[in-house]
Specification:
The protein has two helices and no strands. With 97 residues, the protein is an all-alpha fold.
């Protein structure tokens, strides 16, 4: 937001759209405090981006774990169902004898 504001002020002052206020153009104009504030601003934005990606990765990892657990549960349920069917068939065969 600060970046856009600085660009607006600089370009607006250059084309006489608004009065020139002495705000430097970020990453182009030289000025100690302007350069420092721009670097701090971009550092904050980069930090937020990194945190957001880490959170997204953690969320995706949780989803994968949940899917794996559900698949394992379904597999166990299927195997248990198969065992029950085999027992029932065995019982039927024994009753026929």
């Amino acid at each position: 937001m600060e970046f856009i504001f600085q660009v607006f002020l600089t370009v607006g002052g250059a084309v006489k759209f608004i009065p020139s206020t002495g705000v430097t153009l970020p990453l182009v104009s030289y000025g100690g405090s302007s350069v420092i504030s721009t670097i701090v601003l971009f550092s904050i934005i980069q930090g937020m981006y990194v945190l957001n990606r880490e959170e997204a990765g953690e969320i995706e990892e949780k989803r994968k774990r949940k899917r794996r657990a559900e698949q394992e549960w379904e597999t166990e349920e299927y195997e248990a169902e198969g065992a029950t069917r085999r027992r029932a068939k065995r019982t039927q065969r024994q009753e026929r004898r």
